[in-house]
Amino acid sequence: MTTNLLDNLAASKGSHFTNAVRSEWTKIRTIRSTWICLGLAVFVGIGLSILVPSLVAHNWATRGISDKANYDPTSLPLVGVGLAQLVMGVFGALVITSEYSSGSIRTTFAAVPRRGILLSAKATVLGILTFFVAELFTFAAFLIGSSVLLASGGRTINPTDTLAQQLTSSHIPVATLGTSGVAFAVFRSGLYLALITLFVLGLGFIIRNTAGTIATFVAIILIIPAILGVLPHSISRPIVEHMPSALGSSMASTHQRTTDYAGTLINPWGATALLAIYVIIILLIAWALVKRRDA
Amino acid sequence: MISVSGLTKTYGETVAVDDLSFTVPPGVVTGFLGPNGSGKSTTMRMILGLDRPDQGSITVDGKAYRDLQWPLREVGALLDAKALHPGRSARSHLRSLAESNSIDAKRVSEVLELVGLESVAKRKVGKFSLGMGQRLGIAAALLGDPQILLFDEPVNGLDPEGILWVRTLLHDLARQGKTVFVSSHLMSEMALTASNLVVIGRGKLLAETTVENFIASRTTPTIKVACRDLAGLNTALLAAGAETTQESDHLLVTQMSQEEVGLIALENQLALTELTLQSASLEEVFMELTAGEGDYETGVTQ
Q1: B63 touches chain A (CB under 8 A)
Q2: What is the pLDDT of residues A91-109, one digit of tens each?
Q3: CA A89 remoteness from chain centre
Q4: Mutate to test the interface with B, among A26, A97, A105, A114 (most CBs of B within 10 A)
Q5: pLDDT more than 90, % of chain A
């Protein structure tokens, strides 16, 4: 009897969720702004991944040793992620805030009154879509960015070279996907973009307003870390290294990096886990509010 | 059947809905009448589980809205025709709704045809006129072929042809045994569309009755009577206990039935040229009932 009930419950829950996912997938793919946002993110991201590596390679010979020591051959071609995340964030905001601004959220909630199911369906669709696009983008950006480095006088890292040998070389070291840990770093950068988009989705559910959501997102990603940067390092670094943008820098690297703005970053997989925890927390807050609030 | 019981909702200091109870039976069109700002839309949002009541309960066919298995198959609603993503086509909009409630995809084409939008189904809804938007909203409400239908001001922005179309549709739906609940601030429209009425003012129930009873119970029946010898008739009626008002070519009689007026005329050998019962319009009755109940009244005496 109980198992029967639980089976039915599981089946009905499951089918509500899968129907909500299908519905949200139809909604997200049938508006042009989805494809404009994703296309723009890829376009500006790859653009930056061409521009910055070519400039760095061009100036390599004249750089000082400490500058060279901060150079990370894996994350440099992924530099476009920093710009792409802004466009992806706007996309994540619009997916939900456009429903609030048009009022269609009421139609949505009338169709799916179990709001937890709706929120998880939206997050699932957005997460999967941005994950695939972001992975395609980061691998393309890495391949293109490192090709630019090679074409600008770079030389593929020889695993037997010591760090000192690499730094004193007149050729800028270039990583390949075959270099140890590099493929994972590129993968994590794509994951970073998908997680950031989900983070903004959660913000959008909480704030319910496009401008407010985007402003909050930009504050968290860019403005707060910049403001904290003027404080003494002993105060700012422990905070900044735990903020999403520093986690993104860490995730784009093969090893635990040291930066001038946040000191030694959290290790790449640790950063990934921490960002995932942020996303889960923000979506849980969103869920608690959405369940209670009037639409 | 919709049952509302003891419903109360406040927004900050404002009491939007105040201890409201009524039922909406199946098989008839029930009008939901009240001035702007009287709590009609708030009540409809609470029926759909969108806003949470502070007190009271609402059931649709015995269940709370949030507990319905596939809500769009049991309750269809048109709340705000403009509440759509402007960049999506009508067909995609309906398709996403159908998918969310496990409704067969071919229903999308059926309802588009029913409301006459199949030729513009692929156009972005942002380019729709208000009337087309209303039709799309009605299509969405009918999508799951529900037994209960809610329409918030469905004729807003429609041309006379569209209004007639909505009115006929509502009658047809009621004839099929469905529960049809339609809000409006236009009394004249309700007089033609609804047979039952729920009237509210400032969130409170003012009347729950049929349109006929609503008018009959709130107006004094007035009889218009005319004959060649108005003065003679007037004297006879006054003697029999009626109250009269003499106009240029007729009398207005109260406190007496049509039959009595006819008999008195016969007794006095007076040939009547007219004997009619004057009924007040729903508009007049409503204005009288809700005087002072609207949130945004003009200074004009109603």
Answers
A1: no
A2: 999 999 999 999 999 999 9
A3: 8
A4: A26
A5: 75
Per-residue pLDDT, A10: 47
Task: Return the residue of A nearest to B122 by Cα.
Answer: A30
Single out the residue of B185, B156, B227, B201 nearest to residue B18, CA to CA. Answer: B201
Distance (Å, rounded) from C-alpha B160 to C-alpha B143?
A: 25
Secondary structure of residue A113 in the 3-state scheme: coil
Q: Rounded to whole angstroms, how far apart are CA atoms A79 and B223?
A: 88
Lowest mean pLDDT, pick from A69-83, A128-142, A157-171, B69-83: A157-171
- Under a CB-based contact definition with an 8 Å cutoff, are residues B55 and B11 in contact? no
- In sequence order, what are the beta bridge partners of B58? B4
**pLDDT (tens digit per residue) in B18-47:** 999 999 999 999 999 988 889 999 999 999
B96, A23 contact by CB (below 8 A): yes
CA separation for the pair B216, A98 (Å, rounded): 49
Rounded Cα distance between A121 and A112, Å, is 10
Tokens at B259, concatenated: 């039959």
Question: pLDDT tens for residues B212-229?
Answer: 888 777 767 788 999 988
SS3 B129: coil
Q: A22–B100: do the CB atoms touch at under 8 Å?
A: yes
Residue B278 bridge partners (DSSP): B222
A267: Cα separation from own chain's centroid: 17
Q: Which two tokens stand for residue A235?
A: 């105060």
Query: What residues have CB less than 8 Å from A88, skipping those under 6 apart?
Result: A37, A38, A41, A130, A134, A193, A196, A197, A200
* Bridge partners (DSSP) listed for residue A173: A155
Q: Which of B67, B96, B104, B150 to substitute to test the interface with A, most A CBs within 10 Å? A: B96
Whether this model's ipTM surpasses 0.90 comes out as: no
pLDDT at position B292 is 64
Q: Which amino acid is at A70?
A: N
Determine the pLDDT at residue B101. Answer: 96
Q: How far apart, in whole angstroms, are the C-alpha atoms of residue A172 and residue A88?
A: 31
Sign of CA dihedral A201, A203, A204, A205: positive
- H or E element: which one contains B9? strand B2-11
Residues B131-142: tens digit of each pLDDT: 899 999 999 999
Helix extents (H) in A152-260: 163-168, 182-207, 210-218, 224-228, 233-240, 244-251
| Tokens coding A295 | 């639409």
CA distance A79 to A44: 11
Compare CB distances from B65 to A32, A104, A113 and report the shortest one's residue.
A113
Lowest mean pLDDT among A242-251, B14-23, B141-150, B255-264: B255-264
**Phi, psi dihedrals of residue B16, rounded to the nearest 5°:** -85, -40
